[in-house]
Design goal:
- The chain is α/β, with parallel strands linked by helices.
- Strands 3-2-1-4-6-5-7 form a seven-stranded mixed β-sheet, with helices on both faces.
- Helix 3 links the parallel strand 2 and strand 3.
- It is elongated, with a radius of gyration of 25 Å.
- The two termini are 16 Å apart.
Length: 389
């Protein structure tokens, strides 16, 4: 698996004298649920469903009251694939609403890992194992695709979409706090079931702002996100999200998300130097700007120059306030979560118990149960090895 960091995972030894587990064994034992939100995807969805690997235990398709025969196509594919569950919305709820429905169904199925895979064919199952690996081995709580790592593949992305993604990605990182997540707008994601169960699903947006609101909630939990490199994949599909809609809806929502995060993080859940910098920097900068603009208008109207002292008061408060806000931003950059929730008590399960469970299934030659007894506690060995331990 390619990684955007120099992470060197620890080795795991169950201490029972057996060989270390492989990624393939972990994939077969896990209760992996893929959620497919579908809106007018009749042309592509059959191919998407047939391409999902066999180690996925359940496929939940949420048909969001589209105008074509997507549901009928899914029903025909489901006749040959018992993993597929079709849920139909009576009213259109947006991609976020479809995913919330799918998440709730995945929790009912007691999923170890939940994957979001759109029905338009943009999200290749070829990279699904790479997306799942850091979650199965407790290196992260959520994994997202990163299209910006491969510049040759990125060049295939339409120019307007590429420019919009870069700008929106930066604003999203500032709003949600995951500064090290290179492609926060990528919708190809996987999330551990135990972390999903801790999320307030009712607070997630039901529109295209869904992914951003999900990241915002995960940040407040302290979840760790891992980027997984994968190429941009675009064919002849048409996006239903218009540029005008993004420009009108996203800025106020991103601003609201940023303000909510700063207040909750710095003054409710914790109090740190970032809180001090914000409490002093914002009033100083605001005072300096208001005072300076007011005096400039007043003296301009009178036709006289402002006294040196008046100019210095405005200039010094603006400079000092700006410097304090820069310090707050620097603190915010350093506070990106780095310790996975799944390794903490209450989230982590027994690695040895999982190892024994996998080996019992292999010996008995039984298929993996729909609900695995543990959310995994193993970690891969150093890169270059064909096994994990």
């Amino acid at each position: 698996m390619q990684s955007t960091s120099n992470y060197s995972p620890p080795s795991f030894s169950p201490g029972d004298g057996h060989e270390p587990l492989t990624l393939e064994a972990a994939l077969q034992a896990a209760n992996i649920v893929v959620v497919v939100p579908a809106y007018n995807e009749a042309r592509k969805i059959a191919g998407v469903l047939r391409s999902i690997p066999d180690y996925v235990k359940h496929i939940v398709v949420v048909e969001d009251c589209g105008g074509d025969n997507t549901a009928q196509v899914v029903e025909r594919v489901a006749e040959a694939d018992s993993r597929i569950t079709l849920i139909r919305h009576e009213q259109n709820q947006g991609v976020g609403g479809a995913m919330i429905t799918g998440f709730r169904k995945a929790l009912e199925l007691r999923a170890d890992v939940v994957v979001k895979m759109d029905g338009d064919g943009q999200m290749s199952p070829e990279f699904l194992a790479d997306l799942l690996e850091p979650l199965l081995f407790r290196e992260a709580d959520m994994a997202k695709g990163n299209r910006f790592h491969d510049f040759r593949s990125l060049a295939k992305m339409p120019a307007l979409r590429r420019a919009g993604n870069v700008a929106l990605s930066f604003l999203t990182k500032a709003a949600v706090g995951y500064w090290t997540c290179f492609d926060p707008c990528n919708g190809y994601l996987a999330l551990r079931g135990d972390v999903l169960a801790a999320l307030p699903l009712d607070r997630l947006h039901r529109s295209y702002f869904f992914e951003t609101s999900l990241l915002a909630q995960l940040y407040l939990l302290g979840a760790v996100i891992r980027d997984v490199s994968m190429p941009a994949r675009y064919a002849d599909e048409q996006s239903s999200m218009s540029i005008s809609r993004v420009l009108l809806e996203f800025p106020p929502k991103l601003l609201s998300c940023l303000l909510r995060r700063l207040v909750l993080k710095n003054f409710l859940y914790d109090f740190s130097m970032e809180s001090v910098y914000l409490l002093t920097g914002l009033p100083l900068l605001t005072f300096g700007l208001v005072f300076g603009i007011t005096k400039w208008i007043s003296y301009s109207a009178a036709g006289t120059g402002a006294p040196t002292g008046t100019v210095m008061i405005a200039a010094m408060t603006i400079i000092l306030g700006f410097q304090l806000l820069l310090s707050a931003i620097a603190e915010d950059l350093r506070q990106v979560p780095v310790h996975p929730l799944c390794r903490e008590r209450g989230f982590a399960f027994s690695a040895a118990a999982f190892a024994r469970s996998v080996r019992r299934r292999a010996i008995a030659q039984e298929p993996a149960a729909a609900t695995s007894p543990a959310v995994f506690g193993v970690a891969p060995v150093q890169s270059g090895s064909s096994t994990v331990s």
